[in-house]
């Protein structure tokens, strides 16, 4: 793999990498910050799920 | 100290959300309840120096939930036993509204009541005394105009006097016994009896011991007790109503709604109006949004030129213009159609006509296993699948909603039109007229639209009977009285939809645009760069330089990741009559279908091209395969057209489905089934057509 | 016994019993006010004969034929 030929190209690579990382995290649901704990005592998925 | 809560509870169409907006004003926040697409509206207010969290619960008829919306309302009430509850009762349907009050009431629950639509009730001859109702119930009851902010503020002052309601409920002996045995209040035992109709969720909602007792009852005993509970509650509400109405009313029918329905639901006139309204809606989406879309595309173009003149030629400049700015454009370009569709849906819904639309078309939609509510989203799909997918939220049944969402991207959206126009112009322009009247191109275009209709309806029918099969959900729906929607409410809904799209789906679309740009750019083929640099030596003629530039762009695209991908899939798409250059176009058109045209422009060395571009048409017509045969024949053109009718070449639709279903499972499934359908159909057309001697 | 789906447009009747096989639907109908002794008026049918609109307790409700078939009514009379 070649090195970026200019500072501009290096910035472009960083932007593309960030976009790709964003997609991967959205796709897999990984979070780098723990999600604020929001409820529920009764998970809704259990309510909608038929036994 | 955490803020005290005030929960707004009421029937659908009771004016509850209007009241919430009047109370919350600019402080209203909208979002989703976690893990499910039920809209959550809340606002942090300050009342008499104390923080007050106002939450507008989804409309419900009782606490025996039948839909995700109602489950949320029930769960929030259960999770906040300390919270004050403001029960919003529509004065024109007071018995039904008070029925919910009898279900919400429990020991320790502090309640106040807002009586809405009092003016409408008065017009219909229903005069209800809030004072009398308040005295019987022993809690504050206030008649309010839900749009009046001052009147709404008065409801907050009532909170000081919030109290438990006094109800004269004559529950059957079985409920009394159940309450004693399980050591719970009678109101809770009554909820358990009703809740036993949903054995799958009763345990989570009411706890083990009570649920077991309720489920242990013999079916006939349970059925009788359920009827007795409903009867007891309605007897109570009717008594409350009589006590609060001064003179026994004569006729309290809504004559205005009846008069309008005589036209709008008339067997012939009604269908004409229906066709007209749907036609207008479609026309608005299809061409009404055009000037705005052109404006946005123009602005994107200007921004790109501006950056091009400001920055020297560099990779970063290309990323900014062709990746970031084009990506932002890819997002914003949907806003006009989303705004228009939701303005229209909000108007139809708030006026009361949307329920009538579902009523009129239900029998037809049932033929494919869906319900009347699926019609408007399906129709909107012909303009653009993204707003249409978001519009499926009006469908109450989850399975019907999912099926509608998964099938509607097959309808031919407006982004497919440039693709159809280009290919038809290339391969069918010279064909003779059909029956001496219609041009071959028009017949093919019409057939593509028909094919997409059949595809969408067929896919819905098949999915409803296979992977998403299940009992037909009941179509028990209230037809609200006709009411004039307020502009403020319509704009608020529209803005919240646009904002939600920009934040949630827009971020994915922008990131995908940037990644796709990188695929079309990298790796840079240094030999081509050097080769064309050498060619440029000594050339001064502008046209010649332009030709070298175009050749270089074509060469660079050929060696980019997208080009390699196009070549890699060539063996797969060859049986469809396509070569790697079309393959690159297909890869590029994943950003948006119409991008196929501009990508083909680059691959075929015609420079900037649109579907009307003569140079691109000529290049395509004269293009040959490696063996020297013609690339675009009527048969291979037809195969490509059919591929685009069915293929899910749209990342924005996938992002919208991801947002609506809160999972990647369904968008991936959609992409898979549509691609397989597209591939197999195009394959059949090309191969069978070839065997039959067509070219 | 007569069922609601057989009632003519414009006629009204009194509900005798809601007999759905689906208990969830039965409870929902009762909670919407379709209980024993309630007056119900058939207002109109959709152009294809299904679904239909009834008036009950001062508001209008649309039901499919199949759902209306489960509602037994008595004492039919013209308006």
Characterise this structure.
The complex is a heterotrimer of chains A (51), B (695) and C (79). Chain A is mainly alpha-helical and 51 residues long. Chain A has helices at residues 7-28, 44-48. Chain A has one domain (7-48). The longest helix of chain A is centred in the middle third of the chain and has 22 residues, at 7-28. The model of chain A is unreliable at 34-51 (pLDDT under 50). Chain B is of the alpha/beta class and 695 residues long. Chain B contains 33 helices and eight strands. Chain B has a seven-stranded mixed beta sheet, with helices on both faces. In chain B, helix 21 (416-428) runs antiparallel to helix 31, helix 23 (487-521) crosses helix 32 (651-661) and helix 32 (651-661) runs antiparallel to helix 33 (665-691). Chain C is an alpha+beta fold and 79 residues long. Chain C has a single domain, classed as SH3 type barrels (Roll), CATH 2.30.30.90. Helix content of chain C is 16%, strand content 44%. In chain C, strands 1-6-2-3-4-5 form a six-stranded antiparallel beta sheet. The longest helix of chain C has 9 residues, at 23-31. Chain A binds chain B through residues 5-6, 8-9, 11-12, 15-16, 19-20, 22-23, 26-27, 38-51, and chain B through 33-36, 65, 68, 71-72, 75, 78-79, 199-201, 204-205, 314-319, 323-324, 398, 507-508, 510-512, 514-515, 517-518, 658, 664. Strand 8 (477-479) of chain B pairs antiparallel with strand 5 of chain C, so a sheet runs across the interface.
């Amino acid at each position: 793999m070649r090195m970026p030929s200019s500072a501009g190209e290096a910035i472009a690579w960083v932007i593309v990498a960030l976009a790709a990382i964003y997609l991967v995290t959205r796709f897999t649901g990984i979070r780098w910050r723990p999600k604020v704990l929001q409820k529920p005592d009764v998970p809704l998925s259990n309510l909608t799920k038929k036994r | 100290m955490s803020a005290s809560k005030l929960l707004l509870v009421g029937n659908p169409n009771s004016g509850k959300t209007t009241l919430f907006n009047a109370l919350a004003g600019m402080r209203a926040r909208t979002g989703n309840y976690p893990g499910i697409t039920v809209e959550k509206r809340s606002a942090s207010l300050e009342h008499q120096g104390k923080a007050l969290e106002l939450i507008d619960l989804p409309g419900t008829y009782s606490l025996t939930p039948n839909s995700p919306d109602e489950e949320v309302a029930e769960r929030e009430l259960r999770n906040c036993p300390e919270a004050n509850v403001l029960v919003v009762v529509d004065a024109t349907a007071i018995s039904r509204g008070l029925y919910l009050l009898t279900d919400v009431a429990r020991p320790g629950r502090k309640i106040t009541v807002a009586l809405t639509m009092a003016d409408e009730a008065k017009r219909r001859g229903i005069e209800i005394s809030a004072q009398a109702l308040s005295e019987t119930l022993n809690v504050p009851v206030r008649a309010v105009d839900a749009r009046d902010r001052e009147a709404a503020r008065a409801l907050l002052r009532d909170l000081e006097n919030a109290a438990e309601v006094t109800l004269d409920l004559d529950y059957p002996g079985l409920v009394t016994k159940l309450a004693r045995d399980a050591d719970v209040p009678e109101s809770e035992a009554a909820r358990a009896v009703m809740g036993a109709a949903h054995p799958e969720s009763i345990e989570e909602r009411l706890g083990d011991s009570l649920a077991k007792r309720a489920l242990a009852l013999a079916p006939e005993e349970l059925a009788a007790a359920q009827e007795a509970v409903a009867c007891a509650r309605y007897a109570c509400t009717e008594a409350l109503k009589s006590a609060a109405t001064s003179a026994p009313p004569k006729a309290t029918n809504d004559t205005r709604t009846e008069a309008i329905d005589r036209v709008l639901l008339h067997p012939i006139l009604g269908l004409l109006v229906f066709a007209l309204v749907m036609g207008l809606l479609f026309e608005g989406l299809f061409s009404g949004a055009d000037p705005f879309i052109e404006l946005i595309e123009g602005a994107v173009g200007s921004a790109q030129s501006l950056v091009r003149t400001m920055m020297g030629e560099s990779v970063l400049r290309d990323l900014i213009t062709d990746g970031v700015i084009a990506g932002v454009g890819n997002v914003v370009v949907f806003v006009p159609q989303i705004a228009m569709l939701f303005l229209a849906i909000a108007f139809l819904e708030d006026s009361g006509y949307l329920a009538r639309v579902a009523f009129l078309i239900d029998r037809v939609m049932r033929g494919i296993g869906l319900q009347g509510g699926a019609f408007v989203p399906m129709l909107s799909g012909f303009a653009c699948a993204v707003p249409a997918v978001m519009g499926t939220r009006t469908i109450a049944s989850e399975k019907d909603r999912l099926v509608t969402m998964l099938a509607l991207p097959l309808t031919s959206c407006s982004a497919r039109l440039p693709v159809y126009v280009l290919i038809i112009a290339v391969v069918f322009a010279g064909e003779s007229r059909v029956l001496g009247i219609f041009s071959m191109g028009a017949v093919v275009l019409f057939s593509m639209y028909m094919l997409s209709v059949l595809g969408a309806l067929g896919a819905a029918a098949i999915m409803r009977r296979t992977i998403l099969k299940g009992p037909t959900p009941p179509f028990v729906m209230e037809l609200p009285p006709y009411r004039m929607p307020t502009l403020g409410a319509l704009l608020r809904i529209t803005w919240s939809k646009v904002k939600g799209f920009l934040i949630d789906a827009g971020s994915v679309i922008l990131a995908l645009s940037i990644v796709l740009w990188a695929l079309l750019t990298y790796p840079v083929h240094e030999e081509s760069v050097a080769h064309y640099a050498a060619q440029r030596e000594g050339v001064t003629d502008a046209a010649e330089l332009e030709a070298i530039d175009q050749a270089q762009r074509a060469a660079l695209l050929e060696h980019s990741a997208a080009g390699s991908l196009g070549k890699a899939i060539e063996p797969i798409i060859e049986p469809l009559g396509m070569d790697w250059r079309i393959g690159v176009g297909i890869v590029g058109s994943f950003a948006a279908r119409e991008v196929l045209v501009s990508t083909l422009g680059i691959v075929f060395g015609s420079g900037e091209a649109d579907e009307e571009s003569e140079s691109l048409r000529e290049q395509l017509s004269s293009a040959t395969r490696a063996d020297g045969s013609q690339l675009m024949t009527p048969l291979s053109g037809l195969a490509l057209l059919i591929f685009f009718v069915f293929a899910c070449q749209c990342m924005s639709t996938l992002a919208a489905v991801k947002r609506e279903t809160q999972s990647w499972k369904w968008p991936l499934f959609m992409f898979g089934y549509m691609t397989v359908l597209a591939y197999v159909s195009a394959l059949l057309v090309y191969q069978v057509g070839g065997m039959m001697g067509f070219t | 016994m007569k069922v609601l789906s057989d009632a003519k447009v414009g006629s009204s009747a009194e509900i005798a019993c809601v007999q759905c096989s689906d208990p969830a639907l039965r409870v929902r109908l009762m909670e919407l006010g379709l209980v024993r002794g309630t007056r119900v008026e058939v207002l109109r049918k959709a152009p294809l004969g299904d679904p239909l609109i009834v008036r009950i307790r001062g508001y209008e409700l649309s039901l499919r034929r199949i759902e209306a078939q489960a509602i037994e009514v008595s004492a039919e009379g013209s308006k």
